[in-house]
Amino acid sequence: MKSIQPALLIPFIIVGLLFGIIGGWIRLGHMAFPIGEAAAHHGLLMVGCFLGSLISLERAMVMKSKLWLAVPLLSAISMPFVLGGWPGLGAYMLLAASLGLVVIMYFQTIKVAEIYSYIIAMGAAAWMLGNFAYVYSDFVPMATGWWMAFLLFTILGERMELNKFLPTPKWAGLFFYAGIGVFGLGLLLPFHQWGNTVLGIALLCLALWLFRFDMARYAARKPGQFRYIGIGLLTGYFWLALNGWIMGWMEDHLFYYDLYLHTFFLGFTFSMIWAHAPIILPMVFKLQINIFHPVLWLGWIMFQVTLAGRIVSAWLGDATWRKLFGVANGWVILIMFLLVGTLFIYRKKQLETRSAEKSRFFSQKIKIWREKVSERDMTTKEKKSQTE
Questions:
Q1: Burial class (CB in 10 A: 0-12, 13-18, 19+), 36
Q2: CB-side exposure of 23: number of CA atoms within 13 Å?
Q3: What is the pLDDT of residues 143-184, one digit of tens each?
Q4: Would you say 140 and 44 are in contact if contact means Cβ atoms under 8 Å apart?
Q5: Angle, nearest 10°, between helix axes 269-284 and 319-387?
Q6: Is the dihedral of CA 342, 347, 351, 356 positive or negative?
Q7: Tens digits of residue pLDDT in 279-304
Q8: What Å distances lie between residue 101 and 51, 61, 185, 190, 275, CA to CA?
Q9: Structure pTM?
Q10: CB neighbours of 36 closer than 8 A, spacing ≥ 6?
């Protein structure tokens, strides 16, 4: 296990995303890539094989021992089993990986005994409970709420960690914790009775809190990467608020399930991914490089426009435009990851080139210094010889 490198896991994670997107296309009626297993296990691929692996990788990299990379490895390699006709085995692997993430967070909460660490740990536990619910019932809706909690609590904990130095009124902190508590209560209530309404109220409250107290509103006023991150986060909070409204008060809509799932898992979650990508990717590989480039704005705008088109089409009940925008949105996701990956590789090569140039520069300096010392020693010896 000591030979595991993060770069070896990335292809599995991206392939998991690719097949998850293909499964989503098939569910929309786009049959360009007719892979039945991808459609049947779309949620498992997206939440477990892709997002679960990505978050586990981020958390495992904080640990000192590379042995912990076995957790995202287990999650990532569940993908071939999910697609290969053994989804039950793949689900058990994801359950084991989520248990591993809980153990990672246990040690991290001991090391950093702060409230944001506990919230992230709650997210890991929610992923484990969701995976258990899926293994037990073989029914995705039984796990969906817990999977949402996994991503929501992880993101809230990370935002809280970054906001810990901002002055926040005491009542705002209580409001935030109450929002998390109400969401947890909603998970325990029957979904189509009071559960969805309670979840919707909690999400609206948490979105309002993030709009008001998160540092994103300060970052959005600054230029360059700060503005990109700030606007990206604020847009994600808008999707979270919309998700809360849909979940709580649009249950009778024809595309209710589609609307509430994709305003959260695409609108909120992927907006968070795009905003944090320029920071998280270098951090995972422990490189001090800035991979932001204005071209990311183009991909980001395309993502938001195609997603908005899909959601509005579904809202209006137009299946044709919903399919068109949904397929386009999937391609944009892949393009965005290609852009981020290309920028990362380019900046990494720049860093390696600069390091090599510095190394050659210092080597030349040392060589010149040694030559001068050698010449000085020879001159000293000659003078001494002449004196004698």
A1: exposed
A2: 21
A3: 999 999 999 999 999 999 988 888 889 999 999 999 999 999
A4: yes
A5: 20
A6: positive
A7: 888 887 778 888 999 999 999 999 99
A8: 13, 12, 23, 27, 23
A9: 0.91
A10: 26
